[in-house]
Please model this.
Amino acid sequence: MSLTWEPRIVGFACRWCTYAGADLAGTSRLEYPAAIRLIRVPCSGRVNPSFVLRAFQRGADGVLVAGCHPGDCHYTSGNLFTRRRYSLVKRFLEYLGMEPERFRVEWISAAEGHRFAQVVREMTADLRRLGPNRKMREET
Amino acid sequence: MNERQAKLRSIAGSLLAEGRVSLFIGFGPGLEPSRPVPWFAKNADEAGKLVLDPFCGPGLARYLLDETAAGPAGIVARGCDGLGLERLVADKRVGRDQVYVVGVACRGAVDPDKARRLAGRPVFGAEVNGETVALTTAGGRLSFPRSDCLLDRCLACADPSPRTADTWLEEPLPGAQREFEGVEALEKLGPDDRYAFWARHLERCLRCHACRNACPACNCVACSLDNPEWLERTTGLADHFMFHFTRAYHVAGRCVACGECQRACPVGIPLMLLNEKFMKDIRDLFAVPDPHRPQEAEPLGHFSPDDPEGWREGDETL
Model:
């Protein structure tokens, strides 16, 4: 850990909604912390739960999975599977000892630039309070 | 000799003699009386050596994967074996018509290690009578509470008999509701204590894959846990977390709670606490009353438009 630790968030963003929402936040000149690194995925249903754990292991302090609102999936039902899956995975990660604030699932549409900025701000504030993640980390 | 065993031998013997099955899977004599081994009888002679006593511990369902290739196989099935078979049939890995099920009413299997430790000397026989277990040793019969002698998985068992069978060795016992007391106790701890608990257990993992190989739900032909792109053959704690997270998630909604993973684990990791966490959440979030019994629709294989968002704070437990 360097003296100037800053939280790092890995964000998995659905290509159709959240990624466009993040774009909107940018083009609207909204300010949000640079802590988040977005990874564009075709659908929130594409995010294998192992990706989430791997992100934590390789240095993420927080992970965000974000996609279209239920009912708005470009592929009709991808995010409905996401909802089922991550309902379980979120609780399972906490059961293994992860703090609840470190992993979030959010629905952010292409029109919700404000929401995207707000989620990143909230998460960054939570992670600043918690400090760097050391749980399940790979030794470096 | 016990009556059940004699009856099983005669049923298996005639099934084999009539050619209705080419193989009968049960238990046979092991190196010690307290450790019967899975037994694959191919003729009436071998069927005459079948064993059925309270030491019959290992799950048998998984053997059907390999053993039904040559033709129909018979199997002696307790509740756990029955659910394992249902799992394999639901996953289309074994045809139900390729299996002849002899159902039994199981009152729990005695853990040979626990019995040896309690008795303090080699144990030759056991009898489960309600809440006590009588162990036969060279020094006479010793009696112990059931909860001290049985395999962990048998203590939590809600399925003494299979749900269906082709013939019954005895009157089947009804199933019960499964409780998740171990999971609830762990949920009450704080995140750091929970992490310490799992780190302490997973640190011991040898990554021998015994839990996966014993599991009737882990029946994929190719397994992602063998793929170095997902998981390298390294043995750090982080990789153990990856392994157990992936294994538990891959059987979420499919685990039949036979407890074979935990029984097979050489270092005693409480693997069922991982599987049961998913079961409990599936029960609570998706209103599946018996998540360990194979469902018409897999809990993670479908969705409902009004599913809850299990990650919302203040939402039921955790």
